[in-house]
Design a protein that fits this description.
Number of domains: 1
Radius of gyration: 16 Å
Shape: globular
CATH class: Alpha Beta
Mean pLDDT: 96
Organism: Clostridium zeae
Order of helices and strands: HHEEHEEEEH
Largest sheet: 6 strands, mixed
Strand order of the largest sheet: 2-1-6-5-4-3
Number of strands: 6
CATH topology: Nuclear Transport Factor 2, Chain: A
Structural class: alpha+beta
Strand content: 35-45%
Low-confidence stretches: none
Protein name: Nuclear transport factor 2 family protein
Length: 126
Amino acid sequence: MDIKKRVLSFWEDVVEQNPIKIQTYFQSDAIINWHNTNESFTVEEYIMANCEYPGQWCGAVERLEIIDDLAISVTRVWLTDKSVSVHATSFIRFCGEKIVSLDEYWGDDGAAPQWRQDKKIGKMIK
């Protein structure tokens, strides 16, 4: 199994909100945690939360690291009308070809807070 290809395909199906395909990536008793909102999901709940999320989405994996059975991805996800843009850092643990755990950290994209802009520190990432 090529974990890199599997993760890239997984993200395509997540962004397309395809419940049938998403189900195939997971071991039936996998646990999915969204730490920012202190939520833990079963596979079925995760699929519902993802596939019933409002809007049409696009996405791009910006970084992917593989360490044994662990894939770490950084993915930008945005609404097609560009009104929302977020990044997800995901720790995806595999057992064979199936995901057994998924720990995600989601953050909104946006400008630096005004107090840092006022101090004129930092610069835009190119």
